């Protein structure tokens, strides 16, 4: 019964990514409470690390892997998301989304060129459908959005890093989710702090202590009930479905984001959004129904 498990995981990735499509709702709440710019992102990385450090020490005493030494994996996954989040501070939202969501292209190229895996025939169809959908939803300005500023490069780098991190997880096949998640938040936090030095103007003033204290319960609920569970599942899933499939399925965020913004923010949802979202869904369904579990690669 391997295939049903594979399909179930694919559906789970699409669902978890879709939930991220409504992430803008709590972000707006944080912004209205004083956590503007990238301060909310930084807080959402530091809180999980504080919560996980006691477990990491406990695992260390039992000679179990903590993930603290998984620097490359942590920078690629956690740092990739930080780059993506901060790209919105430096460029237009549409450009950031288009450049970041080249992730399935990077994932497929990594599978083909670096991991030497043949590209399944259905991948060309699913990739074409998905990217066409992304382009229809966001590509309203015409030509291809070549990077032209720091925000564009951050978005492009974020997508490539996520794809590379997913491929690394798929190859190394970690036995436990905790080290992956700990590395994700540890090195994501370090990346966020380092970027904050270069983004001081965009980050704005440090939030008042009273604002931080008042929002702490909300931040804890957001981290424990939403961010950590979905991140844990999403960064584990490439070990079962592969980076290429993963890269296409996470586009579900665009579908849910477009629909939720239309329902609760009054943003337009016309033929362009309907057509683009339909193509993304078709691309994801093609990949889910036609893909097979990838062969396991033994690390060298």
What would you say this structure looks like, in words?
- It is built from 15 helices and no strands.
- By secondary structure, it is an all-alpha fold.
- The chain has one domain.
- Helix 6 runs antiparallel to helix 13.
- The longest helix is centred in the C-terminal third of the chain and has 28 residues.
- The chain is globular and about 50 Å long.
- The two termini are 29 Å apart.
- The C terminus is likely disordered.
Set out the fold topology.
Elements: H1 2-20, H2 24-32, H3 39-61, H4 71-87, H5 93-100, H6 103-114, H7 121-138, H8 150-172, H9 177-198, H10 200-203, H11 209-236, H12 238-241, H13 243-249, H14 252-264, H15 271-290
Helix pairs in contact: 1-11, 1-14, 3-9, 3-11, 4-8, 4-9, 5-8, 6-8, 6-13, 7-15, 8-13, 9-11, 14-15
**Mean pLDDT across all amino acids:** 87
Pick out the low-confidence regions.
296-300
Shape: globular
Please give the largest β-sheet: none
Which class of secondary structure composition applies to the elements?
mainly alpha
The count of domains is 1
SSE arrangement, N to C: HHHHHHHHHHHHHHH
Number of strands: 0
| Number of helices in the DSSP assignment | 15
Fraction in beta strands: under 5%
- Please report the distance between the alpha carbons of the first and last residues: 29 Å
Query: Taking Cα atoms only, what radius of gyration do you get, to the nearest Å?
Result: 19 Å
Helix amount, in percent?
Answer: over 70%
Oligomer: single chain
